[in-house]
Amino acid sequence: MYPRQKHLLAIAGLRPPEIGHLLDLAENYVLLNRSGKTQRDLLRGRTLINLFFEDSTRTRTSFELAGKRLGADVINMSVSTSSVNKGETLLDTAATLNAMQCDLLVVRHGQSGAPHLLAQKVEAAVINAGDGTHEHPTQGLLDALTIRRRCGRLEGLLVAICGDILHSRVARSNIHLLTTMGSRVRVIAPPTLMPSGITALGVEAYHSMRDGLRDADIVMMLRLQKERMNSGLVPSAREYFRFFGLDSEKLAYAKPNALVMHPGPMNRGVEIDSAVADDPLRSLIKEQVEMGVAVRMAVLDSLSRGPR
Q1: Which of 31, 48, 180, 194 is most open to solvent, judged by the fewest CB atoms within 10 Å of its CB?
Q2: Whole-angstrom Cα distance, residue 290 to residue 285?
Q3: Rounded to 5 degrees, what are φ and ψ at 85?
Q4: Strands 158-162, 104-109: parallel, antiparallel or unpaired by DSSP?
Q5: pLDDT more than 90, % of the chain
Q6: For the ranges 22-36, 81-95, 142-156, 187-201, which has the lowest average pLDDT?
């Protein structure tokens, strides 16, 4: 039996049994949530702190809901009004959190590696909710769960990840998870948004939607992360959509029953056309949101039990 992890900082390094365990546990929480019997005592008496140095209503709310459904006391720390904004260092923050004796710490930070640093300095179990351009492990898990539930498997599927690969921590977590679980992964982006050496991660790289989407089972679109971009990486929103935005014409390059995903928030008319995003038969976007709560419940459950 593999050792249980204390923290969840990345998908890279996790083995198929560890990933499979979290996905199976999340499946149970999907059923529990749909039954309406969502309040449990698993985390009663435990404290969960959401420490978000970057805005993210969707992820923070999902972790908050997951914690409350498991019975935890949930605290959202607003960094914009905290001592961090007054010059407190990350290590000072770690010392403060240790004094508070929290049990679970969910961290989103603009710098890659910040959750890893905190994990070395705090007693709590640390969950990376996105760090810089490094990883966003629970997003990778929820995307995998969404795909597995609809397709019945991950092994052997062809997944095309399209858009701002350069700045996307979502892309990196998905690449690590999907290749580990036996999927074939393609990345599609303009040259300015394609990281050098990306093929070393075991993916195929394309600069054309026509070529990259051919025979794809899953088309995963990414948000243009303008807040991380220098000027000139993309010409204009209109021009970007013309070549790399997903509409019905480009989706036709994929398999006839190909499914569409997007981690959100979506820029409609830039990364994806509304008709595709809202297609009730092919879009998994709403299901991704539901799976996010179940996956985060599974992660909190697993980490709360501590390492073996």
Answers
A1: 31
A2: 9
A3: -75, -10
A4: unpaired
A5: 81
A6: 81-95
